[in-house]
Amino acid sequence: MAKRIEVSGLHAYYGQVHAIEDISMTIEPRSVTAFIGPSGCGKSTFLRTLNRMHEVIDGARVEGKVMLDTEDLYGSSVDPVAVRRVIGMVFQRPNPFPTMSIYDNVAAGLKLNGVRGKGKLDEVVERSLRGANLWNEVKDRLSRPGAGLSGGQQQRLCIARAIAVEPQVLLMDEPCSALDPISTLAVEDLVAELKSQYTIVIVTHNMQQAARVSDRTAFFNIAGTGKPGKLIEMDETSKIFTNPTEKATEDYITGRFG
Amino acid sequence: MSAKTAPGPAPSLLGSISPGRKIKDKVVQGLVYLAFVIAMIPLVSVLWMVITRGVARLDMTFFTKSMNGVAGRDAGGGAYHAIIGTLEQVAISTVIAVPLAILTAIYLVEYGRDKRLARVISFFVDVMTGIPSIVAGLFILALWLLTFGFSFSGFAGSLALTILMLPTVVRATEEMLKLVPNDLREASYALGVPRWRTVCFVVLPTAFTGIVTGVMLAVARVMGETAPLLLTIFVTKAINNNPFEGPQGALPTFIWDQASDPNTNAIDRAWTGALTLIAIIMLLNLAARMITRRRKIASR
């Protein structure tokens, strides 16, 4: 499990709008990489290019290379659906399927891809819920609707759903921005545990969070409204937060702007 | 000095609701209730009238016998042939229209987006919504009966009703699919689920309740259509269980036929026919409610 992602010369567009410009970086396996930066600087867009979710938006397109170990995600013969099975995603707002029970939500990725067999599903559901630190809270009500859980539980349910399909990489787009501090802590603890098995990329607006959970941090910025977002600097998290190379990074993390 | 001033109640910072606002509130509330009552008057009076006049012939004969050999002034006679006809015709048109309409709506919302083809289809669906029902009947008369040479049948009536049902169900389904949050589609894509499975197993179930409601409205609408049926199923007083051959009865045409006959017995039959039609539509609606409710409980 857990693979390295190597991005080179990546540009992303929404129609005519150039959203991110010329990004190259390496994301290490079995580590947590945080993306920080002001709103609209393209962190989320960049994250979505990493599992080809960017292109589900009309008119969106990508140029450049994203290598997962030795395979190019944007190779001409690559099936985007297969990419998303290998690189899972957790979204900003918890989005459990409202018509499904807790059990079915976790099993959704397998069931919708044609996996049958109650024994196998039971096992995956329990393992994923345990993996998401949710098992003890929901084990007695697996048949209740997923939407009935609290916000923090829903988000952990979404994480369980994402890891149930056994991805290599887990992308998290501001997974705690809709959660209270206690739930945030639960998710952060979970991220720390998951990194032993997965390559994790987390977008966050919360710099303390980036400092707490990540091994490496990438700072994105935008030159002005309508300009494309750029990667300013990427380094060890401790270095970014104590002794960044770029002035803009320092200004951002010390709260001078953003 | 100021300490000596009387410690009367301090003027409230928050104040009280001004009389003007209170009056406005009451007036608007009154108007809302009034509008509700006015809207209920025709509904209740129609129901009342149909029930009081319809019960006269609410007997077994009405539901088991046809009008075969019964003249307008005769007592007795029934609407069995009409009930069977209506149920068959509407069932057939539902079977044709609903899958077509749902697939069209899925194309429009999930695949077409702003493509030219989707815009054209959307435009024609709008046009179809405005087709007067008799025009649908005339169209089937001209195409199915006169051009293709088929004879009058319940099925020809179903085709005319299908034309009327299609746009209603397309629009209703489209609205419901649009209400499904994009988050859910993305969540499904992110699990590596292909688009068509996402539509079948995530989007449609989420919109299910609304789609059923839309279908029921369309069914209720076409069940009362008279004009297109007159031109396509023709008239018969006899029982014809086969919707694919020969003229067939239908409740709306039965009501129309009996009501135009100036005999008390015929008029009574017309009222009971109307009551039956309303009852069938109500029962179907109840059934749909039960289905959607059971689904909700099952998903718990």
UniProtKB/TrEMBL annotation, chain A:
Cited CDD domains: ABC_PstB_phosphate_transporter
SMART domains xrefs: AAA (SM00382)
Keyword terms: ATP-binding, Nucleotide-binding, Translocase, Transport
Residue ranges of domain ABC transporter in the record: 5-247
Name of the protein: Phosphate ABC transporter ATP-binding protein
Organism: Actinomadura craniellae
Alphabetical list of SUPFAM superfamilies matching this protein: P-loop containing nucleoside triphosphate hydrolases
BP GO annotations: phosphate ion transmembrane transport
A Gene Ontology cellular-component term: membrane
TrEMBL record, chain B:
Taxonomic path: Bacteria, Bacillati, Actinomycetota, Actinomycetes, Streptosporangiales
Location relative to the cell: Cell membrane
Record field: transmembrane: 31-51, 90-109, 121-146, 152-170, 199-220, 270-291
GO annotation terms (biological process): phosphate ion transmembrane transport
ABC transmembrane type-1 domain mapped to chain residues: 83-288
Gene Ontology MF, one: phosphate transmembrane transporter activity
UniProt-listed InterPro entries: MetI-like, MetI-like_sf, Phosphate_PstA, Phosphate_transprt_permease
Protein name: Phosphate transport system permease protein PstA
SUPFAM superfamilies: MetI-like (SSF161098)
Protein family (similarity comment): Belongs to the binding-protein-dependent transport system permease family. CysTW subfamily.
Bilayer topology: Multi-pass membrane protein
Role description: Part of the binding-protein-dependent transport system for phosphate; probably responsible for the translocation of the substrate across the membrane.
CDD domains to which the protein is assigned, alphabetical: TM_PBP2
Keywords assigned by UniProt, alphabetized: Cell membrane, Membrane, Phosphate transport, Transmembrane, Transmembrane helix, Transport
Pfam family, one: BPD_transp_1
GO CC terms of this entry: plasma membrane
